[in-house]
Amino acid sequence: MKKYQGQFLILKKKNSLTFVITLVLVFVTGIGCEEKRENLPDLVTISSDLQKEKEKNKYLLLVNEAYHKILITLNNELDLMVDLENDISNISPEDIVDEDYVRDFAKELDSKIDLLEQSFENSKARIKELEDLLQKSNLKNNRQGLRLDDLKNMIQVREDKIDKLNERINTLLTENDELKEAKKANEQRITSLEQENSNIRKENNTVYIVKKHEDYLLNNRIIIKEKPFLRPSKFYLSKSFDLRFFNSMDKREVKSIEIPSSKNVRIISSHPRSSYQIVRYSNSTMLLIRELNNFWSLSDKLVISYK
Questions:
Q1: Closest residue by Cα to residue 259 from 274, 243, 279
Q2: How far apart are CA 134 and CA 60, in angstroms?
């Protein structure tokens, strides 16, 4: 009996030691699991991170779409500006002088430029919205910032081009005004020259004609009568006659002259005899000029007397 009691005590001691060791192992293992459990993210954190990533991707997609829309708009605006520059470059000198054409052309360009400037303002507003979106969504980084800066630079370049287009339009209008003034001055000069030439032609073609009774011509000292002894009387054109007694006419329009008498009709002024013909009727006489330039070659005064 004592033998078995001793064996039981030995066994009990062994089991106690095993139990203790087991407890220690369980305790140590439990501590390790707790540490591992504390290092692992929970499901709420994972879900939040995934949601943030989805929001980030959504914002990035919106930013990229807006960026490309603005970029397309700016490229279209650039094409329009190139067309405007070509339109201005292709205007001809004849068109510049045309006041109505230039005014209408400048008005059309101003209208297109106003649309461009409004489009630039819209693009700048959209870029500002993108910047605000990036800031609120914590997406702003060097890459996105540089892309927006590129858009701003593109708009600035286009605004500079618009300024130059406006300068060219103002220059065009100034040239139009200057050319218009020059054209007006030239037209006035041409009118003056034409008038001067007309006066010269008129002066060169103006002749003075008087057909009066012999007594009238003598009394007004238009003609002088000499009575040589035993010879027929002679008539001469006075050197101091008054042109107020004459009618001025264009010699090119004088083809014939009717004289209201057929008695003692004399041509006192000097004219080549072969250049005219006198036709007498019962109560009148007709002077026919056959050679115009020859008739007036010796004198631009025609004095005809009759009784």
A1: 279
A2: 9
- Can you tell me the distance from the alpha carbon of 224 to that of 102, in angstroms, rounded to the nearest whole number? 69
Domain, as residue range, for 233? 220-306
For residue 307, CA distances in Å to 213, 241, 275, 285 come to 6, 20, 24, 12
Q: Which of 52, 49, 56 is nearest to 133 (CA)?
A: 56
Rounded CA-CA distance 103/169 in Å is 10
Express the helix, strand and coil content of the chain in percent, nearest 5 each: 70, 15, 20
30: left (phi over 0), alpha (psi -120 to 50) or beta: alpha
- 51 and 33 in one domain? no
Could you give the CA distance from residue 114 to residue 108 in angstroms, rounded to a whole number? 10
CA neighbor of 220 nearest in space, from 237, 207, 203, 208: 237
Write 217-220 long-range contacts (CB < 8 A, 24+): 217/268, 217/303, 217/305, 220/245
**Residue 180: which of 296, 292, 100 has the closest Cα?**
100
Same domain for 256 and 195, yes or no, is no
pTM of the model: 0.42
pLDDT tens by residue, 21-63:
555 454 445 544 444 444 445 544 555 555 555 666 666 677 6
Specify whether 114 is located in the same domain as 193: yes
Per the structure, the count of domains in the chain is 3
Q: How far apart are CA 289 and CA 34, in angstroms?
A: 143
